[in-house]
Design goal:
By secondary structure, the protein is an alpha+beta fold. The chain is built from one helix and five strands, in the order E-E-E-E-E-H.
Length: 68
C-alpha cells in the first residue's frame, strides 16, 4: 500500500459493533462503537439471539461516523 493509506477495520463481537480507521503505522485515526444487544429467541424464549438487521444498521452507522 502506498504511504498515507488508511485501513478500515470492522469488528462485530458479542458485546460491541465497532469500526476503526488506522494508518499504516497502526495509529488509530477514528473509531466508533455501539453496544450489541441480544433478544429472546421467538421459538425458544429461554435462548438469546442477535438481530442481524440491528447489527448491520449499527455497522453502517459506525462506518459513516468513522469515514466522516
Amino acid at each position: 500500500m502506498p504511504k498515507g493509506d488508511i485501513v478500515i477495520v470492522f469488528d462485530c463481537g458479542a458485546t460491541n459493533v465497532r469500526t476503526i480507521a488506522i494508518n499504516l503505522n497502526g495509529e488509530i485515526l477514528a473509531s466508533e462503537s455501539f453496544p450489541n444487544n441480544t433478544r429472546p429467541d421467538p421459538l425458544f424464549p429461554s435462548y438469546r439471539i442477535w438481530d442481524v438487521k440491528e447489527i448491520w444498521e449499527k455497522m453502517c452507522k459506525s462506518s459513516q461516523k468513522v469515514v466522516s
